[in-house]
Amino acid sequence: MPLHCSSTMAIKASHNLGLVKWNNKHKFITNHVGTVSFYKTHHHKISKPIGCLSKLTQTQSFTVMEDPKRSSLSSLQPTHDLEIAVRAVQMACSLCQKVQDSLVSKSGAVVQSKDDNSPVTVADWSVQATVSWILSESFGSSNVSIVAEEDIQNLSKAKAAGMLEAVVKTVNDCLAEAPRFGLQGPKKTLGTTEVLEAISRCNSMGGPTGRFWALDPVDGTLGFVRGDQYAIALALIEDGEVVLGVLGCPNYPMRREWLNYHHRYHRIISKLTPRTSESWDKGCVLYARRGSGEAWMQPLLHVNKKFLWPNSAKLVQVSSIDNPSLATFCEPVEKANSSHSFTAGLAHSVGLRKQPLRVYSMVKYAAIARGDAEIFMKFAKAGYKEKIWDHAAGVVIIQEAGGVVSDAGGRPLDFSKGIYLEGLDRGVIASAGADLHDKIIRAVDASWDSSSL
Predict the structure, then answer these.
(1) 81: pLDDT strictly greater than 90
(2) Which of 85, 89, 170, 418 supports an S-S bond with 126, CB 3.0-4.6 Å?
(3) Among residues 30, 63, 121, 124, which one is catalytic?
(4) pTM over the 0.90 mark
């Protein structure tokens, strides 16, 4: 039963929030970790929600948490699956950095187009093969089920012989470094058949029962090809619930202000500045486990260094900003699958005045979890269906960092219906807090009928 209180009271509640819309009215309910919900009341009748976070808990604006007693030692004790997942994503980030460098500087990597005309590179298939192999070796191939974006159909064609050769070499080069990441590598070089088998092993269709991994080997391939932002996303889903998420962001700058500039520009500038622990191009990996109430970020592993858990991990937390006029919102760079015009109009109507932060891929989820932005909105154009691997890892990380993610109707995203987010109400909204989230959803309701989506 919700806790009823007057509007003058401030009650501290857990930051793991759930938002659900019932019968055209918004109300907050307890989630899986028991978040307290409370309402503004009048004569014992529920009026309207006033949110789930006390203003008293939102007094500081910094977002990368560094408790002197905890900055170098993660209190999130890793389960075996979480630690393997983080190490695998660290390896995948290293692989992608090398491939992207060749794309940007030498054009040495092959880029192809899939049936939907979206680009796919050596990195997409190589990461999928590498992560698939690592998970299978760590947990046993019979115990591993993976939903992933790429298949071997295009890679197996005769015209893709050059691409396949490059993928096999890239995978073996990456796996040769497995001991540096604390993982067991193959005893001998993988052949073409073994690499193709690792890729094709990612053939699960998901569903409401059982345990499976959701992998997007390179989310934001267009950004990757252009030398810009991209992400590697890995999530574990059990009985339709995301239980852990890992998000690798190789080009995510450690300094927020550098997000506003193109990655390749800062690639040049960084060569003129001293390398420090806060270097913009260091990259990071964010991760969280459902119900822990914590989200963590660790830097990418430097060349020639060995991975030691927790690898200088720091707590991250969403921003405390709940005033739309002070908030920054993210939206996709690509216009093909989202409506910039609707989000721009919506941002104006709700009072957002800052320029949007347009970045490729699930880096948007990382930006909110770290407190670099407060709102992410994506409203798909007619006919486009969101896929689970594009959201699963980011959703659990934002939630454990204190944020809220739902569809535009206020319902949690449903990862139990297969590879697509079936039943999605209009779009996806992620916010830094419950009050802000509610304002955005109300604005969507008010503006939707006049939109062309």
Answers:
(1) yes
(2) 170
(3) 124
(4) no
